[in-house]
Amino acid sequence: MVQWRIEDNMDTFMERYQEPPEIFHLSPVCMLAGLDKEGDPIMLNRLGSFDAFGMHQQVGTDAMLDADYFLFELFSTRGNGMPSHLDWQQYHYEPMTGKRFAQFTVIVDLHGLSVRQFHPALFGLLKKSSYIGQYYYPGLAKRIVVVRAPKVFRMAWGIAKHFYDEQSLRLLKFVTNDDYLEALQEFVDLEVLPPVMNGKGKQMPGYMEKVKLEGGRISEQMQTQ
C-alpha cells in the first residue's frame, strides 16, 4: 500500500482530482452524519439501488475507478491536500467526538438488486474495485453488514466472493429482509439511518450531502436532474 501511494503520488490525488463529475452523485454511497454505537462513522453503500451498468455505459471503467479512488480517499484521508470543504474528519467528526477517526461500520443495502447489475462487463470492474479496497486501503472497515439481499444475490455472490480475501470475508455479516432492522440495531441506533432505510438520519456534510440515495436507472435520474 505504501509503495503504491508513493509510485502513484496518491498523497496529492484529492488536490489533483478535486471531485467526480456530477453524474456520480447518482452513485448511492456515502458516510452518514450519525455514528455507530461505538462512536465510529457509518459508511452506507446502497449497492442494490445503484445502476452500475448504466453508469458504466455513461462514463466507462476508468472514470468509475477514479471515482472509487476519490471515495476511498474521502473516507480515509484527513488533511494532506484534502480540500477543506471535503474534510469531514477535521471539521465534523473530530469536533463531535473529540477523537481521531480509525475505522467505520459498513452497511451494504442490496434492496432492489437485479440481474441488470450482473452484466459481464461489470465483473472486471468489481474485481479491481475490491482489490483497491483490500490492498490499497486495508483495515478501514471493522464490520460489513449486508442487508436486504434478494434471492438473485446468491448467483452473483457465487462469483464475487472469490474477489475477496479471508480477512475481508470474516468481516461480513449477512442479514435477511425480515430482521435487518433488528440486526442493525446491534450496531447502530436506527434513527441515524436515512429515510430510504426507514430512519431519520442525514448524510455527512460536504460532498456526501450531494449523493442521491434513492438510486434507480442512471438515464432516468439524469432526465429528472
From TrEMBL:
Give start and end of each CRAL-TRIO domain.
19-205
Q: Which PROSITE patterns match?
A: CRAL_TRIO (PS50191)
Q: Which CDD domains match?
A: SEC14
Identify one Gene Ontology CC term for this UniProt entry: cytoplasm
Q: Which SUPFAM superfamilies match?
A: CRAL/TRIO domain
Q: Which PANTHER family does the entry mention? A: SEC14 RELATED PROTEIN, SEC14-LIKE PROTEIN 2
The name this protein goes by in its record: SEC14-like protein 5
Provide the species name: Seminavis robusta
